[in-house]
Amino acid sequence: DTEVTQTPKHLVMGMTNKKSLKCEQHMGHRAMYWYKQKAKKPPELMFVYSYEKLSINESVPSRFSPECPNSSLLNLHLHALQPEDSALYLCASSQDESGTPLDPLHFGNGTRLTVT
Amino acid sequence: ELKVEQNPLFLSMQEGKNYTIYCNYSTTSDRLYWYRQDPGKSLESLFVLLSNGAVKQEGRLMASLDTKARLSTLHITAAVHDLSATYFCAVGGSGNTGKLIFGQGTTLQVKP
After folding, report:
1. Residues of A whose CB is below 8 A from B92
2. A66: cis peptide before it, omega within 30°?
3. Which of A21, B17, B34, B42 could form a disulfide with A107 if both were Cys (CB 3.0 to 4.6 A apart)?
């Protein structure tokens, strides 16, 4: 079982809905990430939080809004999404952003999002 | 811009056979990772390779790194059905451990 927990596992939403994806880790990691993975494609980085501050935004549209309430939690707020945003959204964590290359990213099981 | 290319993208092989997946990357990096992903599942870390000549083995899988050639290989020995999955290599940009650039993935199908 993964040590990074994501909820919900599946989400179907209309283009006018507002929803949130949640991610939680209790490994004491100080860096958390959102990746997006389309079918049969590799994961692509969206956001990086380091010590609860946003450190990287990979030019993600503003309809995706990340939030890091504390060091264990990471949210992704969704609003006015498009059908092409349908994908698997993966949360990951690591010890910290800048050190320990020995520590690979620990991924959650993902939320499969369908936008109708 | 760092680019990572894997080949082949799809591999169908018989049980008991050996094969190698290749991962090339375009610029210098100080870390390379191999991940496994089962359909509809998350990514599982397999290997972390940090230095030139690094070799790691776990069961029927062996990964190596040649930083001069900017090449990593994932060798499968005597494949079994349980190894069927998609394998990604991922290369870290300088500094940030989390900004990984993934290869396209190699889907491995092992037939009885």
Report:
1. 101
2. no
3. B42
Nearest to B98 by CA among A1, A4, A35: A35
Closest residue on chain B to A95 (Cα): B97
Note the pLDDT tens digit of each residue in A9-37: 999 999 999 999 999 999 999 899 999 99
Tokens of A99: 């050190």
Q: Residue B97 pLDDT more than 60?
A: no
Q: Is the pLDDT of residue B96 over 60?
A: no
Distance CA A28, CA B112 (A): 43
Q: How far apart are CA B104 and CA B25, in angstroms?
A: 12
Q: B99 at the A interface (CB within 8 A)? A: yes
CA-nearest of B37, B40, B36, B27 to B58 is B36
- pLDDT for B94: 63
Q: How high is the pLDDT of residue B2? A: 83
In angstroms, the first-to-last Cα distance of chain A is 31
Q: Are B37 and B105 in contact (CB under 8 A)?
A: yes
